[in-house]
């Protein structure tokens, strides 16, 4: 637990720095672009991140799971796990580029984007794909080098703020801010790869899609389960913004994006908790349940505090950080903050399921509410605009966390039944040996 809280401290410190920087570039972007053009910007960023998230495999989990068996983290298992992760990253880039081309080619039929921004949109999607960085992140987390990872990841918000300032001065339009975001993606990916290579030399000769599956028969099932779970996380955030733009227009997408960024900061915190706790759950299977329960209790308290902060200071934050036009999204922000608090509680529960080899169960539990929210989104927006969309997110988060809790109870019951069967099958001790 001490190491877990130390690692979480580094991750949260990085998140804190990112949060402060995000307020700066959010202020610059909203005041420079206005609500409609900020909506264009939000849609382009959401599309790039959605395609990258859908195509990207959660390779950091593969390295933590299969690389941990290598002697002192330097054995052949780690080289094979890294090679498998790199091969999957290359596959993600190829698949994602094809999807990006198809999506941007058809974007005008379903997204409120002007013609002159389509090539910019495609370019940002490609840059996001080339900047996939889950493999070097996994190498750092395997060795619990969270401080190094945090320092490398701090490059992204720093470059974004610098780029946003340059955009305000020299290119105060959507293109200028997208170029700043693209530069930050490239910079943070390069920083993480350099940090990981210093810790463990990258051997490209082990790049293969066959070695790990040959050693672990359940490898592809784990790969696809974690990929689909990651895709659902993206769908719950980026695809939601895209569909808000589709059904409600660019201005509504821009307002919802600001409300989500301020109100769902807890979702980022939930992801931080998940990233910190997953390696610990893999290494300490016997104490995994106790560790996850403690984290859920702490998350409950943090979530309540964060929702109260959103209620008391949310309207002021929207008016000061964004513009007066964005203040109408106050209640959407509050609702999304409640959803974020629920996600924070569920983060350790979801990680517990994945670490126990139940990635498919975690995916199924997440999939049903997410799909339901996306299907009902158009009706929710017609009913109450941005607040309706926020309620769709809230319902999805609540159902998913309830599902995680029920799945863990079932997992405990299964383990209890197996233990009782083992005791029943054990031979009676010889009376003469007593």
> What general outline do the C-alpha atoms trace?
globular
Total strands: the figure is 0
Query: How do the helices and strands follow one another from N- to C-terminus?
Result: HHHHHHHHHHHHHHH
Name the poorly predicted regions. 70-74, 416-422
Q: How many H/I helical runs?
A: 15
Percent strand equals: under 5%
Radius of gyration: 22 Å
Main sheet: strands, sense, barrel? none
As for the number of domains, it is 2
The residue-averaged pLDDT reads 80
Amount of helix:
over 70%
End-to-end separation in angstroms reads 40 Å
Q: What structural class is derived from the secondary structure elements?
A: mainly alpha
Structure description:
- By secondary structure, the protein is mainly α.
- The chain contains 15 helices and no strands.
- Helix 10 (219-248) packs across helix 11.
- The longest helix has 67 residues, at 359-425.
- Mean pLDDT is 80; it is low at 70-74 and 416-422.
């Amino acid at each position: 637990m001490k190491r877990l809280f130390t690692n979480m401290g580094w991750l949260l410190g990085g998140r804190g720095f990112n949060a402060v920087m995000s307020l700066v570039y959010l202020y610059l972007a909203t005041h420079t672009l206005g609500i409609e053009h900020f909506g264009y910007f939000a849609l382009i960023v959401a599309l790039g991140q959605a395609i990258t998230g859908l195509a990207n495999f959660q390779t950091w989990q593969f390295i933590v799971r299969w690389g941990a068996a290598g002697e002192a983290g330097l054995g052949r298992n780690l080289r094979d796990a890294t090679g498998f992760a790199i091969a999957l990253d290359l596959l993600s880039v190829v698949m994602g580029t094809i999807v990006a081309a198809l999506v941007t080619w058809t974007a005008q039929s379903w997204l409120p984007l002007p013609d002159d921004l389509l090539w910019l949109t495609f370019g940002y999607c490609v840059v996001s794909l080339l900047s996939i960085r889950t493999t070097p992140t996994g190498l750092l987390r395997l060795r619990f080098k969270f401080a190094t990872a945090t320092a490398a990841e701090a490059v992204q918000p720093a470059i974004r703020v610098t780029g946003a300032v340059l955009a305000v001065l020299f290119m105060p339009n959507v293109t200028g801010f997208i170029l700043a975001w693209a530069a930050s993606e490239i910079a943070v990916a390069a920083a993480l790869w350099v940090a990981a290579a210093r810790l463990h030399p990258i051997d490209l000769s082990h790049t293969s899609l066959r070695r790990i599956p040959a050693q672990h028969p359940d490898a592809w099932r784990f790969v696809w389960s974690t990929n689909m779970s990651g895709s659902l996380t993206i769908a719950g955030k980026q695809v939601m913004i895209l569909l808000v733009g589709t059904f409600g227009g660019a201005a509504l997408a821009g307002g919802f994006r600001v409300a989500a960024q301020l109100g769902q900061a807890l979702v980022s915190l939930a992801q931080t908790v998940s990233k910190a706790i997953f390696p610990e759950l893999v290494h300490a299977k016997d104490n995994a349940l106790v560790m996850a329960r403690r984290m859920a209790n702490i998350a409950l308290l943090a979530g309540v505090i964060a929702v109260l902060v959103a209620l008391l200071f949310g309207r002021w934050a929207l008016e000061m950080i964004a513009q007066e036009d964005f203040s109408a999204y106050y209640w959407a922000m509050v609702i999304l903050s409640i959803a974020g608090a629920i996600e924070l509680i569920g983060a350790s529960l979801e990680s517990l399921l994945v670490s126990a080899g139940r990635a498919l169960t975690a995916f199924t539990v997440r999939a049903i509410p997410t799909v339901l929210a996306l299907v009902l989104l158009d009706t929710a927006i017609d009913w109450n605009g941005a607040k309706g969309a926020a309620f769709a997110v809230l319902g999805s988060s609540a159902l998913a966390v309830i599902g995680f809790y029920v799945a863990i109870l079932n997992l405990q019951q299964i383990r209890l039944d197996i233990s009782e069967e083992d005791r029943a099958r054990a031979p009676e001790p010889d009376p003469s040996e007593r």
